[in-house]
Specification:
The protein has 164 residues and is α+β, with helices and mostly antiparallel strands. The protein has helices spanning 30-45, 52-69, 129-136; strands at 19-25, 80-82, 91-97, 101-108, 139-144, 152-159. Helix 2 (52-69) packs antiparallel against helix 3 (129-136). The protein starts with 18 loop residues before the first strand and ends in a 5-residue tail after the last strand.
Length: 164
């Protein structure tokens, strides 16, 4: 079990974010493809397309983990929208862009902490998700949500080079 970790995470005040986008994801595995498409469109719009490969891999792993390990009997959600931090779906992808940082955060309804598996088998079909998140992002962590939302957010941070 991993302890909640917020170190390295920028302030979550939406007013401090340069750009933000959020996508409600359906409770089915096709949502991973939808999350990748949403990430591509958003990063292109923010002129961060050069970071797509690493960010997309991490988004795919975070969304897959939420779908696989954090959903109860499965409820459906719909739609993607820019700049929204809405509440109506079981899994939600948030992309937040500061001048020199990008955060990918996936909200899910489970209170359970992410579990990093200890494996030496890197050819295994599963069990490597958090290892990949750790390898491709600059830092990552999770924290429980308070209030009426419940659940947790698992996030990954990417440092960005300032544009000349």
């Amino acid at each position: 079990m991993l302890e909640p970790l917020r170190q390295g995470l920028p302030p979550l005040d939406p007013a401090a974010v340069s750009d933000a986008a959020s996508c409600a994801l359906p409770a089915r595995y096709e949502a991973v493809r939808e999350a990748r498409r949403f990430t591509r469109r958003t990063l292109d719009q923010w002129e961060l397309g050069d970071r797509f490969d690493d960010v997309c891999l991490v988004v795919s792993e975070l969304v897959t983990n939420a779908l696989r390990h954090a959903l109860p009997a499965a409820s459906a959600a719909r739609g993607c929208e820019q700049g929204t931090f809405g509440q109506g779906s079981p899994v939600r992808l948030h992309l937040m862009h500061w001048t020199e940082r990008l955060v990918c955060a996936v909200r899910d309804p489970s209170q359970d902490s992410p579990v990093a598996r200890d494996t030496d088998d890197f050819s295994a079909e599963s069990g490597r998700g958090l290892f990949l998140v750790d390898s491709f992002s600059d830092s990552w962590g999770w924290h429980p949500l308070a209030g009426t939302l419940g659940g947790k957010v698992v996030w990954a941070l990417f440092r960005l080079q300032p544009h000349d």
